[in-house]
Amino acid sequence: MKAARWLPPMVFSLAVAAALLIATGIVPVRIVFQNQVAEARGLLDTPAGAKATPVAGPFWRDGSTAAPAEAPHGAPGSFAELTERVAPAVVSIRAERTVRPEANRPRNPIEEFFGFQFRNQPQAGEGSGFVISADGYVVTNNHVVADFDKIDVVFLDGAKLPAKLVGRDPATDVALLKVESSRSLPSLPLGDSDRTRPGDWVVAIGNPFGLENTVTAGIVSAKHRRTQNEGGPRYSDFIQTDAAINPGNSGGPLLNLSGEVIGINTMILSPGSGNPFAGGMAGNVGIGLAIPVNMAKQVLPQLRAKGRVSRGKLGVAIQPVDADAADLLGLDSANGALVYNVEEGSPAARAGIRRGDVIVEFNGVAIKAMEELPQLVASTPIGQRSKVVVVRKSKRQTFDVTVGALALEDDDAGPALPSGEEPVPTGEYGLSVQTLTPEIAAELRLDDSVKGVVVSRVRPGSPAETARLQPYDIILEVNQEPTPTAAAFKAAIGKNAKGALLLVRRGRQELFVTMKRGAH
Question: Is 432 an annotated catalytic residue?
Fold first, then answer.
């Protein structure tokens, strides 16, 4: 009944509106009589004689109507059998350390309430690892276990064993642990990462977010990835994978379909992640990085034998070769490492290598990217005679170099600075400095008016690294006191028990940097 009330007015309104449109000519309508039937035309019709606009065909490429393609050759139907075989050798790493409160710090409100300062506080860390021998050697990342007092290894069956830190290598981020067990432990074989190709299937197993023995799968996305992340390993040649790696996966194995370890899961790249290591708080976005197992094979014997790694040294400071430099230096391509400084008395200096030489080959291996040379030299036995090919004034020359020993403190340092004095170390802060001599100032292209000390070394994990100090930074003041010499710096840095406010010159800018004192 209600619909009958408003229907007639609506029909009448529509009829009036149509009549007005036709009467004004806005909508042309022709009345055609055909077989004594009147028809109104013109509202939606194509005018007589006019050609209809043709509709274009598909502007895309249609797929084939053939049968669906088969899965890629070698694609597994399931990873379950592989997982069951290797999982018992994958372990969870649980580490603890005691954090001592800073000296002379004020009490916090809770401590004020109780009337005393809280003493040493425990701090825990987690990661992953894998057994490589039946007698209990376990591989993990250095950053998982560095500076921890107590380390436990937890197996798939829940068994927990205390672990001894046999050795660690910050420069590659590899660490070796040892557990003692009355039974023979399951272990994983180490494969050949050089044979791994982009597109190969891989499986990652680890302890993300404390979820033990989590299995993820993907492919090798790329090889030879190098990063310059703050706090990252000095020598990097990562395997990139899209197998999900998350916080807690650090130190776990990256496996091929044969169940062989081809990499050590180490870090992830994630927008806004801050710390890129897989032990940080970032999440996976499909870019995980693993240390090639062949790189680990180079350091594990030394870690087992002496707890640290000795490396070869040439004694040159190098930089990349770009297209413009290659053209000016008479190179066929922008490959090699351009020498911009030769350490006095070093193996390179004794062999005759000079500033301006471009090292293009080391022991028969062509140097394509600058970063390749330090890794080749570092892996060369100390005392070995090596052939170094350089391009000097458009001509190739070969030099015989006896590789020297890279000092342990140099292993995490920047290029050597040209100075006759030894760097002054500050152990609690983790940096070494030298007086800014006229020779160094000229090398760094500084005015003679700049007075201070130049940072020559920064130890990873130290207060100096936390403060983001870098080699070649010029420290002008400590706690608003000028420090024109290394002796003045050492005296000023020890006056304040809390730390130091540094005035630092970096490039053309000057900025203040706060640095807290580390544990003695």
Answer: no
Tell me whether domains 311-406 and 411-516 share a fold: yes
CA–CA distance, 342 with 323 (Å, rounded to integer): 23
Q: Which CATH superfamily is domain 311-406 in?
A: PDZ domain (2.30.42.10)
**CATH code that applies to domain 80-309:** 2.40.10.120
**Candidate list 128, 193, 250, 419, residue with the active-site label:** 250
φ and ψ at residue 324, rounded to 5 degrees: -65, -45
- Cα–Cα distance measured from residue 502 to residue 496, given in angstroms and rounded to the nearest whole number: 12
DSSP state of 101: P
Domain ranges of the chain: 2-41, 80-309, 311-406, 411-516
DSSP string, 349-381: HHHT--TT-EEEEETTEE--STTHHHHHHHTSP
Q: pLDDT digit of tens for each residue in the chain (520 aa)?
A: 455 566 666 656 666 666 665 566 655 555 544 555 445 555 445 455 555 555 555 545 455 555 554 555 666 778 888 999 999 999 999 988 765 555 455 655 555 555 555 555 566 778 999 999 999 999 999 989 887 878 999 999 999 999 999 888 988 899 999 999 989 999 999 999 999 999 999 999 988 887 888 999 999 999 888 775 555 677 778 999 988 888 888 899 999 998 999 999 988 876 655 555 544 455 667 788 999 999 999 889 989 888 888 888 899 988 888 888 888 787 888 899 998 888 888 999 999 999 889 999 999 999 988 888 988 998 888 899 999 999 988 889 999 999 988 865 444 444 445 544 555 556 678 888 888 888 888 877 788 888 999 988 887 777 888 888 888 889 999 888 898 898 899 888 888 877 888 888 887 777 778 887 765 4
**Whether the Cβ atoms of residue 306 and residue 320 lie closer than 8 Å to each other:** no
- Of the candidates 478, 373, 390, 483, the residue with the CA atom closest to the CA atom of residue 435: 483
Q: Where are the beta strands (DSSP E) in 2-120?
A: 30-34, 37-41, 90-99
| CATH superfamily to which 411-516 belongs | PDZ domain (2.30.42.10)
Q: Is 173 a catalytic residue?
A: yes
Q: What is the amino acid identity at position 392?
A: R
What 8-state DSSP symbol labels residue 415? S
**Which is the catalytic residue, given 128, 169, 173, 242?**
173
Q: Is 224 a catalytic residue?
A: no
How many whole angstroms separate alpha carbon 312 and alpha carbon 266? 25
Residue 430 burial (C-beta neighbours within 10 Å; 0-12, 13-18, 19+): buried
Residues 193 and 298: beta-carbon distance below 8 Å: no
Cβ neighbours of residue 245 closer than 8 Å, sequence gap 6 or more: 204, 206, 208, 216, 265, 268, 278, 284, 288, 290
